[in-house]
Amino acid sequence: MTRHTQPTIALGMITRHFDDHKTILRFLKNAETYGHVINRVIVAYSHNKDEATVAEVEKRIPIDLLHVSDLHALREQMHQIGLASEAVVDLLVLPDGGESGEVPYGAYRNAVLFKALLDGIDYLLFFDTDVEPRVLTDLEGVDAKWQEADFVGSHMHSLTKEHVSATTSEYSGYYIIPPMSFPGLGELLIGLGKGMAVEYMDDCHEHQCLNLGPDSPGFPRPTEKPLGGNLGLDLRQAERLAPFYSTVYTFDNMTIKGRGEDTLLGQAISASSGQIMDVDVRVFHHTYEGFPAVPDIRKKSIRDRFYWACLGWIGRNPFLSWYLDQTGKLETDLRSETTMQRIGLEIGGEKAAAHLKDPRFKELVAAFEASSQALPDSIERYHRLMRAWRVLLAAIGREQPPRQVEDIDVSDLRLAS
Length: 417
Description:
Mean pLDDT: 93
Low-confidence stretches: 401-417
CATH class: Alpha Beta
Strand content: 15-25%
């Protein structure tokens, strides 16, 4: 692993199809505008790459492309530093061997993270393909007001501070939950693990679920909620970090990817006395098509996007509830939390199906049951990943991080009925 005189910065991105160079070039131009040197771009993709797209990026900067279902070169790199095959498999294996074609979000991000660590990158900044390095500061009808943001500089300003392990911020643009109001929405949100959004959605007729950002960043402030598409990591403090982790489950003969791969990262940093700073740079997120039009839940494409988000949250929640319970951070007991979510989905899903005229929402409670049934496997995969992470850190000469959750015998796991 090579260390450089000047800190090295890599941009990381994940995508299914790597066929558009515009997002990467937009962020590179933004960095150049503010005088920052980016050393490399690392992209993890799952389906296909377009050679013309690769060539356009390579004109500007070295790029590493990682096909998450075929990480032979990354495996070899791990073997070369002394990792045994078991640890390599636990770091890189996909839940079903990749046969479904659906790759957990955590596996994408980990491919980028591991590559950056193995290559001695000092700072890794993630953005998503539907994000721009500018802030939406106002919107009146079709007239949007924008402020270019110093994406790299804002993250690096805090990321280079002592004890700061990660930097993040919320987004500007439309919220993932589109404007809607009906009896039972509160129950639905609680069932989805989105109880914090109930009050926000009560006023959606006023703000239309549009989030704006400031013309200039405010003062950075501590947070425990990192967002994967607006995220900086100090890899020099890898012992304070953790790998990304997300669940998968099978529902209605489909492989569903759980959302929230960044959730455990925040918990791990907090547990290791690291700090996450919200840098208050709300880069723009193209949440729904047709911007600046207000997302209309009656439109099938909007409703589909929300429905799949619901399935993703349901995929995350049983594992997250278990994790918070194990670490003493669950506000209630696990059985009560599980029961509350199940009842919320049963009542809220029924009401949503009637209001949206979409029977799929009736089945959200069945999806929750399927996700809960996958919990023992999710826990076992998580423990294997964390053990292998400690092996990786030892191999690259980093102190082993504190254990986040004690290993348990998942064969004896008692799930809430």
